[in-house]
């Protein structure tokens, strides 16, 4: 026989649009309904805020029965629930993965079921979808090196999302991130990128950190911190090696919730970076009220640092302020030696950009980590073959 994992996740109408007071009661209703469908041999768990998983052992020939279970789950969960005279309609999607008797870690099986669930969600499938290998290669994580400017040593990578479309080829994030936010998929896509990046980074040298971005839409998810911690536990990446980057503009949406999420992440040992610093309107108040560990200056200032006196003045002022607060400054967009010399002279601590290497695959990033561990400082145009997809 084989182990089957069935993941059930809601559509965008569930907890994301409900009052916090209603959400726990709704989750209890859903859990009770799901438990009522299965026998004691089926393990049922709530994985995160609004997702459930069922694990069961069935013969490989019993695929139709698993399909039927998935359809029953959809019919059971997708209905209206009454609370205090108001009705909440719940939508749902189902993804299924099977081990088929082959050796596979439960975490990997859960990940595959999650990918199938995301595929069902993105295609608005009204039926359960089974995982296949083609789903896993669609969204990939690449990395951009982060260099200690004083020593030239590699200290980390920033994970970048790339969409490897089967017809259009490699699609950059500025073409699909906004669409994903608009249709409510950004959280799921970001989790896929994080999971892939965490799994790649777990075997790197323990001094190498990994930075991941959190979009403004994701900060509206009250369970964001728990989801990130779950991914760390699932992949084995230590929390103290993770840096979560929050853009300044995303703090405008709900500063109180942002503070709660930041505090939860920091309590786990995760570092927090304020990304794109200088592009918003209340930067100084954020530095005072939120415990950031890193300030990242927006690349637009670095791109014009040589021809725009105001850009140079802003970079210099931010670096001076950050030094006074004992917070290191990271600058993005370093693409030539002149820019490198300029930001070093201003006291910036960490740099990243194409001068140190174009975005690279997990294998290429691992090669750079091993070279760094061997004692090699990262040089411009690092001799690592750069490709655009895994």
Question: Can you describe what's shown?
Answer:
This protein is α/β, with parallel strands linked by helices and 390 residues long. It has 13 helices and 16 strands. The chain has helices at 22-35, 63-77, 106-122, 133-136, 173-182, 186-201, 224-235, 255-267, 283-289, 299-303, 309-324, 337-345, 362-373, and strands at 2-10, 43-48, 51-58, 80-83, 86-89, 92-98, 129-130, 139-148, 154-165, 169-171, 209-214, 242-247, 271-277, 294-297, 329-331, 350-352. The strands form 3 sheets. Strands 8-9-11-12-13-14-15-16 form an 8-stranded mixed β-barrel, surrounded by 4 helices. Strands 2-3-1-6-7 form a 5-stranded mixed β-sheet, with helices on both faces. It has a two-stranded antiparallel ribbon with strand order 4-5. Helix 6 (186-201) packs parallel to helix 7 and helix 7 (224-235) runs parallel beside helix 8 (255-267). The longest helix has 17 residues, at 106-122. The two termini are 33 Å apart.
Structure classification: alpha/beta
Overall pLDDT score: 81
Number of distinct beta strands: 16
What series of H and E elements makes up the topology?
Answer: EHEEHEEEHEHEEEHHEHEHEHEHHEHEH
Tally of helical runs = 13
Can you list the strand order of the major beta sheet?
A: 8-9-11-12-13-14-15-16
Tell me the fraction of residues in β-strands, as a range. Answer: 15-25%
- Tell me the overall shape: globular
- What is the radius of gyration computed over CA atoms, rounded to a whole number of angstroms? 23 Å
Query: Which parts are unreliable, with pLDDT below 50 for 5 consecutive residues or more?
Result: 12-19, 380-390
Q: What is the percent of helical residues? A: 25-40%
Largest sheet: 8 strands, mixed, barrel
State the distance separating the first and last CA atoms.
Answer: 33 Å
């Amino acid at each position: 026989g084989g182990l089957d994992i069935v993941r059930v996740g809601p559509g965008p109408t569930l907890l994301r649009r409900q009052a916090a007071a209603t959400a726990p009661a709704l989750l209890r209703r859903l859990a009770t309904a799901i438990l009522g469908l299965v026998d004691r041999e089926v393990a049922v768990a709530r994985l995160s805020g609004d997702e459930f998983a069922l694990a069961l052992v069935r013969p490989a020939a019993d695929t139709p029965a698993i399909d039927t279970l998935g359809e029953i789950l959809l019919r059971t969960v997708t209905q209206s629930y009454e609370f205090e005279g108001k009705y909440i309609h719940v939508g749902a999607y189902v993804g299924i993965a099977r081990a088929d008797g082959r050796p596979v870690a439960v975490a990997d099986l859960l990940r595959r079921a999650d990918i199938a669930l995301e595929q069902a969600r993105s295609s608005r499938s009204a039926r359960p979808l089974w995982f296949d290998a083609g789903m896993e290669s669609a969204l990939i994580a690449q990395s951009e090196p982060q260099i200690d400017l004083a020593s030239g040593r590699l200290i980390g990578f920033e994970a970048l999302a790339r969409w490897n479309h089967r017809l259009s080829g490699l699609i950059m994030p500025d073409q699909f991130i906004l669409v994903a936010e608009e249709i409510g998929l950004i959280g799921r896509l970001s989790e896929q990128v994080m999971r892939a990046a965490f799994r790649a980074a777990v075997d790197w040298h323990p001094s190498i950190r990994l930075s991941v971005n959190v979009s403004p839409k994701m900060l509206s998810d009250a369970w964001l911190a728990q989801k990130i911690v779950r991914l760390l536990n699932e992949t084995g990446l230590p929390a103290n090696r993770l840096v979560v980057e929050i853009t300044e503009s995303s703090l405008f949406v709900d500063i109180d919730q942002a503070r709660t999420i930041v505090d939860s992440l920091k309590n786990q040992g995760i570092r927090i970076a304020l990304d794109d610093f200088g592009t918003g309107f209340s930067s100084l108040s954020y530095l005072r009220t939120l415990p950031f560990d890193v300030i990242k200056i927006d690349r637009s200032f670095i791109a014009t640092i040589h021809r725009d006196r105001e850009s140079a003045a802003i970079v210099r002022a931010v670096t001076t302020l950050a030094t006074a607060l004992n917070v290191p400054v990271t600058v993005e967009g370093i693409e030539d030696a002149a820019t490198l010399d300029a930001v070093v002279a201003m006291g910036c601590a960490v740099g990243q950009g194409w001068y140190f290497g174009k975005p690279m695959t997990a294998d290429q990033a691992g090669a750079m980590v091993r070279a760094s561990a061997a004692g090699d400082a990262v040089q411009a145009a690092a001799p690592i073959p750069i490709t655009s997809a895994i």
